[in-house]
Design brief:
The complex is a heterodimer of chains A (351) and B (137). With 351 residues, chain A is an alpha+beta fold. Helices cover 23% and strands 30% of the residues of chain A. Chain A is globular, with a radius of gyration of 21 Å. Classes of the chains: A alpha+beta (351), B mainly alpha (137). At the A-B interface, strand 12 and strand 17 of A face helix 1 and helix 3 of B.
Amino acid sequence: MSNTRDLEELREEVGAIRGGVALSELDRVGVVRVSGEHGFELLDRTLAADLYVRDGQVRHAILLKEDGTIQADVSVLCDDEDFVVFVEGIPASELTQILGGCLMEDEAADVVDLSPSHRVVAINGPFAWELLAELDGPGAIGLRYLTFYRPRPGVICTRGGKTGEYGYEFMVPIAEEAGLRSDLVAAGRRLDLRLASSAALDYCALENWFFNVHAPGIAGVDPIEVQLQWRLSNQGGYRGWGALQERRARPGGRRSVALRSSAVLSVGDTVMLEGRSIGTVAVAASDLGGAGGIALALVERPLAHSGIDSFTVNGAPVLTGSPPFVDNLSLFVNPQVHSYANRDEVPRPGR
Amino acid sequence: MSNNNADGAVRLPRPRVKSDGSTPLAPRAGGVRWAAVQLALEHWIARRTSMMDIVRRILVEELHVSLTAEQIDPDAALFGTGLQLDSIDSLELVIAVESEFGIQLVERDDLVPTALRTLNSIVDAVIEQSAAAEGEE
């Protein structure tokens, strides 16, 4: 397939996510169940976040390597007395091993890799709630952000997503995946549901400034560099905490900053200031909404600020900005008033 | 306007970030000597840093977020995920920021104030509103 064709398909997929609803298979998401008397203590000690999470809630967390860099992006679901963990960046089997290694001798917890038996699919878009309501009744619309429910036996539906639009992820037993997908596709016809690839989700994640552990240029970063300090517990003691404290104490360092350019930006490009290298492009994409490119760059911390037009990449000027790069339609959609059928009536700035 | 800004005497360059959050390309000041670029850059960063420090203080001391000021990253989401502020917090935040900087941060009928999404977006809005107020004087 040509690059032009790839770009056109990507544009259509992103268009569905930004304007309607799209179905995606999250084959990069693994699932682990943690249960037992000390399940909470095990997760709390291993993951960097404070796991203040009640039954039915979801908490974003992060798994660090011992050197303080990011190993995996994690969401923890509190399921009664158990925890369901969605993990990206490493296979669920690896997280299972890591958790097993962190279990103390006098602790009791079961850690089970659910990936061989379950899949995760997602719907994203400003009218994803409407598809969920078609599937499961109007009560589903009231599902709060970062909570979950069980739409059918064995299936968990969380409200989350990394596109900036309404997003729902279904953890479903493999035996029931085809049925769920079939139901979603059937219910989604009226909403012009289309499939969206991982590339489309990655693009939307960049536009909305969601951390994307799959981006190759992100490898080896720590949570301070990519502005994920809100996911760090102040209690300390978790895996990688000591190394992270050392990193925090070092002078200098880098921080992520959003770039926009009229020229194409590529991962690994050097960000320059008056002939001096000050950073590197870590995540980049062609700007589907216009010409040029958008990017996340890791720049010397004192210079990593918004509104600067003195930097260059490959000789072309770039502008640092305040992400997200888009105003999501979901911000303006009111499920009590709007629907996909009357989507043109959703008020937006500049319209 | 607060007197807390370290470079309060320096007139801000026009904001380069629009109120809708988009970041239009601005022409680069070609041919400007490095010293002039550096000076403008230092002023810009000092101004933004000073404003961010004020908003961070509001978040920590008045809204009691669970992070220290240093842990509040410029582009971290304030609502939903991130700092997980809620609608009541948003009202407090708007009042505190407007009081501190002497500007109107958001329109009162703006149901979706995108200016409140992050620390950086608040600073963008403060800069833009300050520049607009200066232009009217």
